[in-house]
Amino acid sequence: MTISKEILDELLKGVDRPEDLLGDAGLMKELKIKLMERMLGAELTAHLGYEDGESAPPTQLNRRNGTSAKVLKGQDGELPVAIPRDRDSSFEPELVKKGQTRIDGMDDKIIGLYAAGLTVRDIQAHLLDLYGLRVSPDLISRVTDAVLDEVREWQSRALDRMYPIVLFDALRVKIRDADSRTVKNKAVYVALGVTRDGQREVLGLWIAENEGAKFWLSVMNELKNRGLQDILIAVVDGLKGFPEAITAAFPEAMVQTCMVHLVRHSLNFCSWKDRKIVAADLRRIYSAPSAEMAEAELDAFEEKWAGKYASIAPAWRRTWAEVIPFFGFDPAIRKIIYTTNAIESLNRVIRKSIKTRGSFPTDEAATKLIYLAIRKFEKDGRNVREWFAARNQFAIMFGERFDA
């Protein structure tokens, strides 16, 4: 649709300053209100079957019944709009629905600000400064609470039958306990799957105070109930009780410890001046071409460092059953499961969102924000690098399980 020069000239009569066009009482805002009112009038005309200013058909009881005032919140600030009415209140406008108070994607803006980690007070100030909108904390809460319905649907969606790799990790979040009213450190558990086609997919998130075999078994059963039947490799970060839970639910799954987390744990026992040397010696273990050679490197490491850092080698030996599967893989697969880099990048997105929060009032409040961070993470890119070579290795190593 093209607006003629004559119409534009007529509209711009009396517009001498920028604020006359763009200001709070400027032409753009007034034009938007008038156009909305004209469209609403046209909707009522279609509903009643006669034009405004004409007489209604004699047999029709329902007639126009004036207007009602409504203030809409949008990017142009507050828009006072006259909504046309009919006598029997059967008119349901599409442009501005009954009960609607926000337009121009204002809900999406509120959710976007919330996802960025802004508090309710921050969002109020931002909308006031940028759009001149005064919104209540209750309105912001109602808008963000709508995310919970999306979370519930997402958390119960059907999963693929098989995931070649599922990475499990946890991070700590401060949440106020409903009973004691004290702030507690709760764990947020995240499962990140890699599909047969090399796509990253967050399978779910769970919040709990304590981890353990019983909790993880409930998570595994939930994944099974959603359609997951097989995991080829499960990569974990020393999660307590996880190996037992994963093998109870998926007996054929191979449990693999994340090497980078194991190295980081080891370096926690070192002084700063020794860290580079110790890290280089640990690299000789996990870069060994076979499990036998890796164990020999571990023996050599223990002989060298046992006197100074006696706890490192035993920590590796305690998890050795979950370390050695790594050495049976081709470099294409090793590169992917060597570390939970994918889930670490997800955790960075989550931490960036929650870093401005001292604590969350409820589990639901934390769930909303973390879910929005996950949604952003998945939009930024889901492909696993160099998956083609790894896929070929999976097809050879796992045969029918990979192709099922």
Automatic annotation (TrEMBL):
Function: Required for the transposition of the insertion element.
Domain of life from the UniProt record: Bacteria
PROSITE patterns tied to this protein: TRANSPOSASE_MUTATOR
Database matches in InterPro entries: Transposase_mutator
Keywords: DNA recombination, DNA-binding, Transposable element, Transposition
A GO biological-process term: DNA transposition
Native species: Pseudodonghicola xiamenensis
Name of the featured protein: Mutator family transposase
A Pfam family the protein falls into: Transposase_mut
Gene Ontology MF terms in the entry: DNA binding; transposase activity
Family: Belongs to the transposase mutator family.
